[in-house]
Design goal:
It holds the Pfam family Fungal_trans_2. This protein is mainly alpha-helical. Helices cover 70% and strands 0% of the residues. The longest helix has 25 residues, at 98-122. The chain is globular and about 60 Å long. The model has no long low-confidence stretch (mean pLDDT 89).
């Protein structure tokens, strides 16, 4: 699991304990476990993927019901379940395509509502270490690859001639959001590529998401390609998004 050692201990012990009290969280845990078994046991991958999908569906059903009563009593379970739901969506993608990626963006945006609403409670509870930014002495020096990539992202926000004002404003804002997500992740996370890849889809405007779906704006597509490269960098480190390696060549 991502995070510092203390956060990994929470995922390994405290989160399962919370799952015994909240079935939707247990379904999220079981889905994540099944996805990992599919990853490490290829001959039985289809069997474990079916289990993962079944538990993911049950988790989403229970999670959506519990949202009506989101508060201090269940925020930790909802937070953990929402986080796992996103990771499971990346791990259990039926295909690795632009369409599925955008669907995953939409799920991420929905789950971010839970995460953002619960943060004040989480910060003062037993799961606080999961969301606490890392100190500078806990971070490794950014890789040369990520540092040069940040410069590319920054260049993507420059104005261009012969582009409509509306299209240009939309692209520049989304590019700046990607730059900020990566810059913040480099400063606060030991896993900046993953953190930024999970953050940017929750920040883009709805009209930019619609432009991604339409696919008619070449500059919007180029920005999506930059995101895909970021996702590929993260996939080199994390098994649950390993299926997205090479996505920039397929869209």
């Amino acid at each position: 699991m991502p995070g510092l050692d203390v956060a990994k201990q929470i995922w390994g012990f405290a989160v399962p304990q919370e799952g015994f009290k909240h079935p939707y969280l247990m379904h999220s845990i079981l889905s994540f476990s099944a996805n990992h078994l599919a990853y490490v046991n290829l001959p039985r991958a289809s069997y474990y993927q079916m289990l993962a999908s079944t538990h993911q569906a049950a988790a989403l059903t229970g999670l959506n019901r519990a949202l009506a009563d989101l508060g201090p009593a269940n925020c930790h379970a909802l937070f953990a379940s929402a986080s796992l739901t996103v990771m499971n969506a990346f791990a259990d993608a039926r295909t690795h395509s632009k369409e599925v990626l955008i669907e995953t963006f939409q799920l991420l945006r929905g789950m971010s509502f839970i995460l953002n609403t619960a943060v004040p409670w989480i910060e003062n509870g037993p799961f606080a270490a999961i969301i606490r930014p890392a100190n500078s002495d806990q971070l490794n020096k950014p890789s040369a690859l990520l540092s040069s990539f940040l410069i590319e992202v920054q260049a993507a926000s420059y104005p261009l001639p012969s582009v409509s004002a509306e299209s240009q404003a939309r692209r520049i804002k989304a590019a700046e959001q990607l730059r900020q997500a990566l810059q913040y992740s480099l400063e606060t996370s030991g896993h900046p590529a993953l953190r930024a890849a999970m953050t940017w889809p929750t920040q883009i405007d709805a009209d930019f998401l619609e432009a991604l779906k339409e696919g008619s704006d070449a500059k919007v597509h180029e920005l999506l390609m930059l995101y895909c490269r970021l996702l590929e960098m993260a996939s080199a480190e994390w098994w649950f998004i390993s299926g997205w390696r090479g996505i920039s060549a397929r869209i």
